Amino acid sequence: MWSSAPDGTDGLAFENVAITLEVKKGVRKTIVSNARGSVGKDGLLAIIGPSGAGKTTLLAALARERVPDAGSRIWRPAGSANFLPQDDRLLPFLTVRETLRFAAELRWDGVDARWNTVEKRDARAEEVLRTLGLGDVGDSRVGSSARILHRRDFCSMAW
User: Fold this and answer.
1) How far is CA 154 from CA 100, 111, 130, in A?
2) Could you point out which of 14, 82, 118, 121 has its C-alpha 20 to 30 Å from the C-alpha of 34?
3) What pLDDT score was predicted for residue 131?
């Protein structure tokens, strides 16, 4: 399901993606059915549709945050796609610096040599902290900083 694209292209491709969820105890509903598409390297993929159509659910599957149904085929080479969720997923008990370091650990795919040591990932987190102009609040808790810190402050992280 998570193998390289059959034509060897660098980018994201998916076909026959289906996602069925339990909407209440004992009741399952297919949220996404027969979704397919592709986007090349450095491309942008937009998924549009009405509220409740399954856009976020599909994106979560493409980002490996949700497991699609059997038979779904997704080709996503390491480092080829990123996903910014619509809800904040910052832990309020961590500092801004700890949040960036935690994100670096989660993002490392175990392959990319640019980030293959904790020291390299920590250095990248510090670089992102400076780039975003958050150095003055780096040791503040995400939930307690006088400056409002939401996902928009972290969305430009280029790991």
Assistant:
1) 8, 23, 12
2) 82
3) 86
Rounded to the nearest 10°, the torsion over CA 42, 48, 54, 57 is 20
Query: What is the reported pTM?
Result: 0.54
- Give me the pLDDT at residue 153, please: 47
Cα angle 152, 61, 156 (rounded to 5 degrees) comes to 20
Q: Verify that 63 and 114 share a domain, yes or no.
A: no
Q: Looking at the structure, do residues 25 and 68 belong to the same domain, yes or no?
A: yes
Report the pLDDT value the prediction gives residue 89, as an integer from 0 to 100.
67
Range of 71's domain?
11-75
Question: With contact defined as beta carbons under 8 Å apart, do 73 and 14 qualify?
Answer: yes
Rounded distance between C-alpha atoms, residue 4 and residue 10, angstroms: 9
- The residue ranges of the chain whose pLDDT is under 50 are 1-3, 146-149, 151-153, 155-159
Measure the CA–CA gap between 21 and 102, rounded to whole angstroms. 29
Number of C-alpha atoms within 13 angstroms, CB side, residue 37? Answer: 13
